[in-house]
Amino acid sequence: MDRPLRIGIVCPYHWDRPGGVQYHVRDLAETLRGLGHHVEVLTPAQHEESLPAEHVTFAGRTVPIPYNGSMASVQFGPISAARVRRWLREGHFDVVHVHDPAPPSIGLLVLMIAKGPIVATFHAATVRSKWLTAWGPVIRPWLERISGRIAVSDFARRLQVEHLGGDAVVIPNGVHVAPFADGPPLPGLTRGAGMPTIGFLGRYDEPRKGLPVLLEALPAVVRRHPDVRLLIAGRGDPEALQASIPPELRPHVQLLGELTEADKAAFLRSVDVYCAPNLLGESFGIILIEALAAGAPIVAADLDAFAAVLEDGEVGVLVRRGDPAALATALGDLLADPDRRADLSARGREAAWAYDWSVVARRVLAVYETVVLPGGGEVTASDDDADVIGATGPGRQPLRRRVRR
Amino acid sequence: MGLPVWTIVAGVVVLLLAVWTAWTLTRLRRLEARVDRARTALETQLRRRAALAAEVAREAAPLLGPERTAGLARAAAGARLPWTPDRELAENVLGRELRALVGELPQLAPALAADLSGTAQRVGLARRFYNDAVRDTAELRGRRLSRLLRLHARRPLPRYFDIDDSLGELVGTAGPGRS
Question: Could you confirm whether domain B5-174 is CATH 1.20.1440.20?
Fold first, then answer.
């Protein structure tokens, strides 16, 4: 089956906000277009003008709800349903691919309205199991319509099997390896030359990203490597961060602020060790793959997702999560051992290629080609409004309860 | 004088039961269609695999020797049965023959080898999606209330399809074999 497919991809989160799922959808769509397929994307956004002119359709705005240390977005109702229906009718898709359809979002609306081959990817990055236990049975009737389920990690697959019923094939997130693998370092920062550097990247004011653990570990690292520098990149409030760093550590900490994609790659190519001290809540360590691709030796917390990417410690160092003493030892040892760093760097670069989009997109395409039957007809929108009305009845109550809480 | 309370309660219960039954029948009908589609997809991939195996038996006869060629051709021909446990056995025989080919894959015509590994991967996917549809059906049919109301009780329960399709793990996935 080598004919070009018409593929509709649904992203449930604001397109113009940075986020793993958004990048995943964008890169998957681009790679599939490069393989000769027609790909349309339906997504909410904060500003309709910020969407690309072609092949991306505006689906309205979501309502943000603070949840699990970050924001969950919710979008439901007749206007969104009408947009979904129009997009499905005009798209003439062979297959529709929804991402993270479990929260009340346009992904779930598509499941309610679309008829035909549907593929779903479960990222489950911001989903807690307590919530899924209550919510899973409610949405199960619509999840039953999915023909092929993909999970991005074993962790996401387990959540899926336990709470949403049904199995899923594991296809990891993709990364464009080449832009990370080749290029210059940040100006004035070359790996292995000058003062040793530790890199941290992420929203540093989110406690689950684990920066406090790293800051607690830093004094012990400074004792062994007096000229070490910790480079912090990402979004957050710089003043609050400065205030949280003890004065004697301040000379060792440098804030880089938010980086562009190109600078992020340069940053990862520059640091001597990349540290991911996250405490919880990561379904997939995309940043670790980027660091591997850039050849950065890694010290990471032993979250399941990180252990999977680092092949249980084969291509990076794993330490117990939330343990500053263990983290300090691992960082100190690695900074003191250039041979081990070179070895990890070489093995990491090789391991990263398995996650290159050229490989990952073909695996996703194999899923599409499996669920699209020859002569099976395109995806249509049901005229049956009862589908959606029936959904809002039982579906909305738990939502309101959650909002009130 | 109003209606006795028990009639109101009974009325509400009957109404809820009717709504639930209608909704569940809709779900079962949809699941039936999904099982059918998934079975067609799996059958398509299995047929393609058998056809490719027959082609390998024709093309690579000098490479494999008469005995293995005959075995492969026989296995490919055997994998055409209706859906019974015998079919699973026949597909397993074919799977074993194809797994034994892994070493020779580089010596086959590149297009044929690529087709073979791609199809092996898709057999694995299609089988998983089919069994998934069967599991969802069995779960809904097995509910106490569905059994009590005998929803779809006369229709045969779809069978799981269990074969060893691990060839896909060996050569079909270019990524880390963690599926």
Answer: yes
